[in-house]
Each structure stands twice: as structure tokens, then as C-alpha cells.
């Protein structure tokens, strides 16, 4: 087959350094647009993004010729530089979560990402990530996940 028809949807999650509240709420609308721009410039469609001051979620369409780790590296490196350009001493935590998303579940994931602030009333990033890892059937180790 000469054509490629990839439909590799990935729900990415990564936190700020030491999960500190480093991203100002008022920066999020521009950060979402910036993630989309990074994606456009690097051939990684960012379908949606959202988060709270200590972590972000992105739904991406992973190109067929790119490893998830490479996509995360591109998104984190460019966005951290941009955030620092706004006068914020900033870094992302090492590591990330990458969870496959079926086409039939895409709308639910978009809704989840777009409503992050609501999901985190009384629920920490750590609790959320643990639930995502366990739901995916992966073994969870708090020391490995949060070091």
C-alpha cells in the first residue's frame, strides 16, 4: 500500500517540575494556542490541550513516523522555553504519561481535557495520574511515577 492512514491518538499528561503550581491561570489560553502551533510546526496535530497550574493534558494525533517520546520532547522543550520567555522560572518534570485513545472515545477525552479545572476540585494530579495508569492496565508504582 503506497498510502499511510495513521489514526494514532495519544492522551499525553505531564507535570511541572516537582508538580509545583508554575503555570499562571491567565496564561493557559495562550499556552493552548502555543501547543497547537508547536504541533503544526512539527507535524504533530494537537487536537486539544488543557490543564491546571501544575500539569497539562494534550490529545495528539501521533505521526506514523514519530515515537511518542519524540513528540513529548518537542512539545515540552518548545513550551517550556515559551513559558520562560514570559518571565516565569519554569521547567517540566522529567517523564510523562502517554495513553492510547480509540476513535470512539475521542470526544470523551476531549471533554475531559477541556474541563480539567472542574476535574481537579478535590482531586490531586497524583490521584488522577494513578487512576489513568491503573485504568490502562499498567502496573503502578508511586516511587516510579512521582519519584
Characterization of this structure:
The chain is an alpha+beta fold and 147 residues long. The protein has 6 helices and 4 strands. Helix 1 packs across helix 2 (68-84). It starts with 8 loop residues before the first strand and ends with a helix. Strands 2-3-1-4 form a 4-stranded antiparallel β-sheet, sandwiched between helices. Helices cover 41% and strands 18% of the residues.
Summary keywords:
globular; four-stranded antiparallel beta sheet; 6 helices; 41% helix; 147 residues
Structure at a glance:
This protein is of the alpha+beta class.
Distance between the termini: 45 Å
Query: Largest beta sheet: what is the strand line-up?
Result: 2-3-1-4
Q: What number is the mean pLDDT?
A: 94
Quaternary state reads single chain
| Total strands | 4
Rg over C-alpha atoms, rounded to the nearest angstrom: 15 Å
Largest sheet: 4 strands, antiparallel
Topology:
Blueprint: E1 9-15, H1 28-42, E2 46-52, E3 55-61, H2 68-84, E4 97-101, H3 106-114, H4 116-119, H5 125-135, H6 142-146
Antiparallel strand pairs: 1-3, 1-4, 2-3
Helix pairs in contact: 1-2
